[in-house]
Amino acid sequence: MDLEWVPEDVLEEVLREIEPRKRIKANRRRPTRKDLIRVIKRALTFDVRPQDFVDLVYELLEEEGFETRFTTVKRIWYMYEYMVRKGFISDILDVVKER
User: Fold this and answer.
1) What span, in angstroms and rounded, lies between the C-alpha atoms of 1 and 61?
2) pLDDT tens digit string along 29-82?
3) Neighbours of 96 (CB within 10 A)
4) Greater confidence, 11 or 71?
């Protein structure tokens, strides 16, 4: 494909707009299970309500440079429940029911 007919200023503008997106995506990665456990523990140090917990976890993950697009609400709550049941943390949010 020949782009010689595209005005130079338009081409530069489009390239400037695309380039930062590439760099942002390249530096971000999915959080592993260990990353999620660490961030959940950190989120519980804040005075947080159950309604705001997931948003805080997402915020902390993004703050650390993780890609949160594939981290679901279900996965966050599953990890929280797993951590409570295994004794890693106590049920601070009081949302895990006894079996």
Assistant:
1) 41
2) 899 999 999 999 999 999 999 999 999 999 999 999 999 998 999 999 999 999
3) 15
4) 71
CA angle 39, 40, 42 (to 5 degrees): 60
Cα separation of the two ends of the chain? 63
CB 91 within 8 A of CB 97: no
Instruction: Enumerate residues 6+ apart whose C-beta is below 8 A from 27.
Output: 65
C-beta separation of 68 from 30 below 8 A: no
Write out the two tokens for 3: 């782009």
Region of residue 87 (left: phi > 0; alpha: psi -120 to 50; beta: else): left
Higher pLDDT, 72 or 4: 72
Residue 2 has pLDDT above 70, yes or no: no
